[in-house]
From TrEMBL:
Composition-biased stretches (Basic and acidic residues): 125-135
Protein name in the entry: Phage holin family protein
This protein's UniProt keywords: Membrane, Transmembrane, Transmembrane helix
Organism for this UniProt entry: Dactylosporangium roseum
PANTHER family according to UniProt: SLR0284 PROTEIN
Transmembrane segments: 32-51, 58-78, 98-120
Signal peptide: none
Region of interest (Disordered), ranges: 125-148
Length: 148
């Protein structure tokens, strides 16, 4: 369930970025736009999940040297790569250029996603609560019961 919430949040923030950042566009009818934004959010999530750890490992010196500011460049490049993959898959999502469009778009998507995820809990929050109380179980009447 948590992955669906994260996908919805990412899709929403990608859609907001198309409205706020000039140069990030999605074309088509309303239904096509929704499907495109969801697909782009999934692609962006996969690209981030696969490439970000590799980039951080290889370029850890750059992160240290720039005090993490190189992450803005990396995020912009990953958004631009997502745009190219979407274009190859015949999705109508486009990021015009690296600077300032991709960098600002990735920064916007990251900040808005973080804010929304801060206020909207996903399934992982419930798992963390149960790990914090290993001696308690959720009872049939809707409350935690102590089983010591």
């Amino acid at each position: 369930m948590g992955i669906l919430i994260r996908l919805a949040v990412s899709a929403f923030t990608v859609w907001l970025a198309t409205l706020v950042i000039p140069g990030i566009t999605v074309e088509g009818t309303t239904g096509r736009k929704v499907l495109t934004v969801v697909a782009v959010a999934a692609i962006f999530g996969i690209v981030n999940a696969v490439l970000r750890p590799i980039i951080k490992t290889i370029g850890c010196w750059a992160y240290i040297l720039t005090l993490g500011l190189v992450s803005l460049v990396v995020n912009g490049l990953l958004l631009l790569l997502t745009s190219k993959i979407a274009e190859a898959l015949d999705l109508s999502f486009n990021v015009d250029e690296f600077w300032p469009t991709a960098v600002l778009g990735a920064l916007f998507i990251g900040i808005v996603s973080w804010l929304i995820n801060f206020f909207v809990p996903d399934g992982g929050d419930r798992d963390r609560k149960s790990r914090d109380r290993p001696h308690q179980q959720y009872g049939q009447r809707g409350g935690y019961q102590d089983h010591r």
